[in-house]
Amino acid sequence: MSLITPDFGLFFWMTVVFLVVLFILWKYGFPVIIKMVDERKAFIDESLRKAHEANERLANIQKEGESILQEAREKQAQILKEAAETRDAIVEKAQDKARQEGARLLDEAKAAIEQEKKNAIADIRKQVATLSVEIAEKVLRHSLKDDKAQMDLIERMLDDVSVDK
């Protein structure tokens, strides 16, 4: 007997054993193996699908984050613009108020100066009138010491009044 050319009986029993093992594997082994392979394939497909969804969600989150950041920048710019406008308005209002207050104080100062001027002029006139009356009184007392001088003054005054009319 040779190993290269087997005997018909050995070949027959090897074929029967092979077919029995093949049948057992076909009936019980291959379905379990195929089921495991299918489950593994389904798990891998599901994992890939979930990974793809996660990537899409991440991309959406990044887009949303960028849009939120852009919106925040726009709001910040708007707030800064409004703050600058408010600041300018407050400064302008304060300047206007200062101008008005300055004009009012200047008008009050002019009015006070004018009033003081009028009071000073009135006081000077009063003093001049008082001095004039005192001087006139002294001059008249001095020049009208006697009756003859008084009579001469009265006649001159009467002459002046008659000439004026």
Word description of this protein:
The protein is mostly helical and 165 residues long. The model has no long low-confidence stretch (mean pLDDT 88). It is 93% helix and 0% strand.
- As a percent range, the share of strand residues is under 5%
Radius of gyration: 65 Å
Number of strand elements: 0
Q: What is the end-to-end distance? A: 190 Å
User: Judging from the principal axes of the Cα atoms, what is the shape?
Assistant: rod-shaped
Biggest pleated-sheet summary: none
What average pLDDT do the residues reach? 88
Low-confidence stretches: none
Q: Percent helix among the residues? A: over 70%
**Helical segment tally?**
2
SS-derived structural category: mainly alpha
H/E series? HH
Q: Which properties best describe this structure?
A:
single chain, 165 residues, mainly alpha, 2 helices, 93% helix, 0% strand
Topology:
Layout: H1 8-143, H2 147-164
Could you provide a short overview of the structure?
With 165 residues, the chain is an all-alpha fold.
